[in-house]
Amino acid sequence: MSHPLFGPEVRMMLDEKNEVGLRAFCESLHPATIAETLTDDFDVEESWQVLERTNIRDQAAIFEYFPILWQVQMLEGTGRAHIARLIEQMSHDDRVALLRRLSPRVAEELLRLVDEADRRDIKALFQHEENTVGALMTTDYAWVPQNLTCVEAIERLRHSAPNSESMYYVFILDEATRRLHGITSLRDLILSPRHTKVADLMETDLVTLRVTDDREKAAEVLARYDFLALPVADDHGRLVGIVTHDDVIDVVVQEATEDLQKQGAVGALTDNYLEVGFFEIWRKRTLWLSFLFLTGLLTFSAMEMFEGELKSLDVLIFFIPVCIATGGNSGTQAATLITRAMALGQVTVSDWWRVLRHEFMIGLAMGVTLGLLAIVRSLIVPDHMLLFVDGSGSIAKWHFGLVMAQVVLAICVLGTMIGAMLPLGFKRLGIDPALASSPFVTTFVDVTGIFVYFTVVKLYLL
Amino acid sequence: MSHPLFGPEVRMMLDEKNEVGLRAFCESLHPATIAETLTDDFDVEESWQVLERTNIRDQAAIFEYFPILWQVQMLEGTGRAHIARLIEQMSHDDRVALLRRLSPRVAEELLRLVDEADRRDIKALFQHEENTVGALMTTDYAWVPQNLTCVEAIERLRHSAPNSESMYYVFILDEATRRLHGITSLRDLILSPRHTKVADLMETDLVTLRVTDDREKAAEVLARYDFLALPVADDHGRLVGIVTHDDVIDVVVQEATEDLQKQGAVGALTDNYLEVGFFEIWRKRTLWLSFLFLTGLLTFSAMEMFEGELKSLDVLIFFIPVCIATGGNSGTQAATLITRAMALGQVTVSDWWRVLRHEFMIGLAMGVTLGLLAIVRSLIVPDHMLLFVDGSGSIAKWHFGLVMAQVVLAICVLGTMIGAMLPLGFKRLGIDPALASSPFVTTFVDVTGIFVYFTVVKLYLL
Q1: CA distance A111 to chain B (A)
Q2: Which residue from A327, B12, B38, B283 puts its CA 20 to 30 A from B406's CA?
Q3: How many CB pairs under 8 A join A and B?
């Protein structure tokens, strides 16, 4: 989806100061295409030169499609008064997201220049915490009072809602109190006999959100019911806003990104990979890595506890890395599956016993397979590694192989069980289960794996 | 979003054979709510007893919200003729997805019972490969010819499209050839003066998909442009179907799940975690785990190559697990970030040099921090571990600490660079970059980390 043709053309029009051409460019293409062309091939100042050719409403439509960091940059390069006009034209939710990114002082200055009604609306949305439905919703919805007929309702919408992007759902409110009575759709208004009362048509079994709900809930509900929008009501049942399908897709993508980043032990980044500041990315990654390093150092202490056993037979040293790595890998698999299943609502904390049994069986079945591989590898270990250091003889290869098979089996089961239980345990404790990331599980299993390793070895060999 | 109240009520109505109550239940609630209540608290046969109380259209609407495995089970429990009627009422895309899950023989038998027009439509959709736009699209769209006025178009839609779920976008076609001329929206038809020609209103700068496009492309385009639906055209510009916003949300969720599962080295599962067959899950996980185990065994061989160095100084053994684990962790972080950034289109293969420099700097910065921690840990190593085995004396703690700091630094940089380059390399080779999973990266870095470890150690100590 790149638009290789527009860039050079726009460049030429800019050089020639071809106002008519630039206006045509801004008016004929989709705002997303225009925004993409400008961010790819032009700088902030040139983008303004292009945007200036069109009216403020189109400017706002294009502006909304710029990445938010680019929006912030653009604001720095133009007059406050112009920005205020632009903000008045932007979608209610997008402009609040933008103002959140500005320094409070700049945001405050801008707000003073925005007209009264918009300012009140922005302030109302601004008060909601990030990641809540309140911060995601827009107050720009289509509504009619309940005593109208279909044809009257359509007529009303023609006059009252021409700018509302989301007029496909029509909310039926009490005109005085704004209490939400029901929902109907533009489709039903058109398909029903003209003089049907809206009140007879509306759906009253409503799924409503609250401003304080997590935005993930909005995504889950909207995706489950295939709705285009969801109403957000306050404690008194008054409609305060709606959440629309396009914002929900963005939430789904962002949440998936955050889950992936947490599972990779990065910590969620707020921006595009190449745009995140070096310090932010260093801090988040180093924090995790240092924590894992310090935890991982416990393998040193664990091995120290078995120093005697470790040195009694050379071959033991060589099998440690692959054995504990296998535990980490099987644990990562389990943790990944369980975390995602929890995020999708397929598994809850109360399923822990079922999950544990399931993972125990899987761990056992996988461990047997890997155990066989361990036997094969043991058969080609050089003879001198199997000599006891104290001179008390050596150990037979097949004997050693059988012991290693049991080590691998035990570690594999340990890994799957830890990997499955950590996310569930985290959730139970109110910690985000996505933090039971693969490096976290791996490190945890590395340390415990050392104990399993030497416990099994001592049982049979030493 | 559980509905604890409906289950017992429906159970009572079933026991009392309360037909009126069951019909009211089916007709008054959202189909998704009904489907959820039934799958949670009832079995397949009971679900049929509930559904039977309502008309076939509502049955189909509810049926679509059952999980697909449950749909398959339900089909087994009822007569073919009834299923055929149900299929005729289902959404065009959902029913094809269902038929794909049935054995070809059963699907063929069912199709014979479905009426002619629906059968042709199903066959047309059925031919497209899974994960393509063709398999995702529906042929159930609203269209009008281009010579109508707005009021005529609305009138036409009232008659032709009452069942179409997606009549918010109206496609303007050549009546004879079905060539796509433009798109308008129900909203614009209503807001424009009544006698405006549709042709003057329509958007002709169209973003169209092809049936062979990857469904991820549909998701990306729809999310970027905030569309409700996208047209799918053939080589001759004829409209063959549309992809709607609700299917795209499902795609986004599924793709994120698959990416997470691949990154956890599981291999993408097709179903709900607790519903996947034991054998399928065992096979996918064991395959990966065995591959990683065999690769991990190379750490054995790598350590064998440094057997002399390894045994010359006791302390060396103890630092190996934590050092190679750190490489794996830093590599996992990098791989996670790059893979996701690629999936979101933020980074492409051509950015490799920029990514490499970036990760090199990050690796260096993180390595210095971890190196300091390594020095601290080295200072508390017991004295006897620092004695050379050949009796040639011992090594000073601070000296050993400085060497370990450099080992950790080098492995950290190695990890980030491998973690960053593997997904890009995979992509370049046409392999899914999500397969550069954290266990894969970890195992890869474990083996190479052994070499780095002993190379640095030999340089300074031996």
Answers
A1: 27
A2: A327
A3: 344
Closest CA to B185 of A165, A241, A27, A229: A165
Q: Is B337's CB within 8 Å of A365's CB?
A: no
In the prediction, which pLDDT does A161 show?
A: 62
Note whether B322 contacts A297, CB cutoff 8 Å.
Answer: yes
Q: Each residue of A7-25: pLDDT tens digit?
A: 888 888 888 888 888 888 8
Q: Collect all residues of chain B within an 8 Å Cβ-Cβ radius of residue A285.
A: 330, 333, 362, 366
Judge contact between A121 and A91, C-beta under 8 A. Answer: no
The tokens for A113 are 């220049």
Residue B28 touches partner A, C-beta closer than 8 Å:
yes
Give residue for tokens 């460049």.
A11
| Contact flag A186-B205 (C-beta cutoff 8 Å) | no
Q: Of chain A residues 391-450, which have a CB less than 8 A from chain B?
A: 408, 412, 438-439, 442-443, 446, 450
A221 vs B contacts (CB less than 8 Å): 1
The CA distance from A374 to A365, in Å, is: 15
User: Exposed/middle/buried for B119, CB within 10 Å: 0-12, 13-18, 19+?
Assistant: middle
For CA atoms B330, B331, B335, B336, the dihedral sign is: negative
Is A296 in CB contact (< 8 Å) with chain B?
yes
Does residue A180 sit in helix, strand or coil? strand
CB-nearest partner of B326 from A260, A272, A289: A289
Summarize pLDDT for A422-447 with one digit per residue, the tens. 999 998 998 888 777 778 888 899 99
Query: Quick one: DSSP state of residue A129?
Result: P
Answer yes or no: is pLDDT of A32 > 90. Answer: no
Note the pTM of the prediction, 2 decimals.
Answer: 0.74
Say if the Cβ atoms of A373 and B29 lie within 8 Å: no
Nearest to B332 among A158, A219, A438 (CB): A438
pLDDT bin (cut points 50, 70, 90) of residue A164 is: low
Give me the interface pTM, i.e. the ipTM: 0.74
Residue numbers in A near B325 (CB within 8 A): 292, 296, 299, 442-443, 446
The closest CB to that of B330, out of A222, A225, A289, belongs to A289
Tokens of B367: 């390595």
Does B268 score more than 80 pLDDT?
no
Among the partner-chain residues A304, A321, A373, the one whose CB lies closest to the CB of B299 is: A321
Q: Which residues 164-183 of A have a C-beta within 8 angstroms of B?
A: 167-168
Count of beta carbons in the 10 Å neighbourhood of residue B267 = 18
- Domains of chain B (ranges; CATH) run 6-127 (1.25.60.10), 142-250 (3.10.580.10), 278-460 (1.10.357.20)
- Whether residue B304 and residue A282 make contact (CB cut-off 8 A), yes or no, is no
User: Hey, is the C-beta of B154 within 8 angstroms of any chain A C-beta?
Assistant: yes
Do B425 and B334 form a contact (C-beta atoms < 8 A)? no
